[in-house]
Design a protein that fits this description.
globular, Metal-dependent hydrolase, mainly alpha, 11 helices, hydrolase, Ribonucleotide Reductase, subunit A, about 280 residues, hydrolase activity, UCP07580
């Protein structure tokens, strides 16, 4: 296995925090904007099952990993379990507002089912790619406060806490993949990860767009005008999809590693808010 590029002094620390238990969020909790709210609600609906998939995919390759990576996998697992719990609670707020999320959940089930019967390395490759997506989104959510500006305080806190942990563990799935494929020729490793990323990107954008439009339709918002508003939100202003494009392209470059760009300074912008909830390593 090549020398890992994860920082030697990195710590992955689960923070056991609960959000939104004492009240309800507004129906359009993000700046009274149905499009912005649907954007994040649709993402959140995917997280509980998606993060369970990530945990299972990575843990299958835990045996035989170097001690440091094994410890990072254990910390990654703890973080993802807590993320799952908190997004289950957040999604309960979504359904309490009258939204039907069953179609969104069924789509996630179908996407995960595509890996059934395939070698475990296929699930790990998909996890590696999706973890890069979560790391890109996480970076933006912390680095650019405009994404969450005007949101209900507890919801915004959730969407700032989750990203700092995604940044912390952004290299775990990738390093697990590198260890699992350490005997592969370099070109094969690059080709497989690139192919899987292209397929994952297509399914991710298509699936999440359908989910966002489904939630907007439940607000009575349909048609070409609504699709244009969603496109402008994603690619215009604040432009989450546009702003992650460079980091997405970097995934395909020779020598890529998630920690080629060390953005741990972003963790410090938020971590002090949750210092009391930090669990032992």
């Amino acid at each position: 296995m090549p020398d890992a590029k994860t920082p030697a002094d990195l710590t992955i620390t689960p923070r056991d925090v609960r959000f939104g238990r004492g009240g309800r969020y507004r129906r359009w909790w993000l700046n009274d904007d149905p499009v912005a709210t649907a954007f994040y609600n649709a993402l959140s609906v995917t997280f509980p099952k998606g993060e369970g998939f990530f945990i299972d995919s990575v843990r299958k390759f835990r045996d035989g990993t170097p001690p440091r990576l094994a410890g990072e996998i254990a910390a990654f697992t703890k973080q993802e379990v807590i993320h799952t719990r908190e997004h289950v609670a957040f999604n309960r707020h979504v359904t309490d507002q009258g939204y039907d999320t069953s179609r969104l959940e069924s789509r996630v089930d179908r996407e995960i089912a595509l890996t059934k019967g395939r070698p475990p390395i296929a699930s790990l490759a998909a996890t590696m790619c999706l973890e890069h997506f979560t790391a890109m989104l996480a970076h933006q959510l912390v680095a650019n406060p405009a994404h969450l500006e005007g949101g209900d305080a507890e919801a915004v806190a959730l969407w700032r806490w989750h990203p700092i942990e995604e940044i912390e563990h952004k290299g775990v799935a990738y390093d697990t993949w590198r260890h699992a494929t350490r005997d592969w020729p370099r070109f094969r490793r690059w080709w497989v990860k690139s192919f899987v990323m292209v397929m994952t990107t297509s399914k991710f954008f298509r699936g999440r767009t359908v989910g966002m439009l489904d939630l907007l339709a439940q607000d009575g918002l349909t048609g070409a005008g609504v699709k244009w508003r969603l496109f402008r939100y994603a690619f215009g202003r604040p432009g989450m999809a546009r702003k992650i494009l460079g980091a997405w392209i970097a995934f395909f470059l020779p020598g890529f590693h998630p920690w080629n760009y060390d953005d741990r300074a972003l963790i410090g912008l938020v971590d002090s808010d949750f210092a009391a909830a930090r669990l032992a390593a």
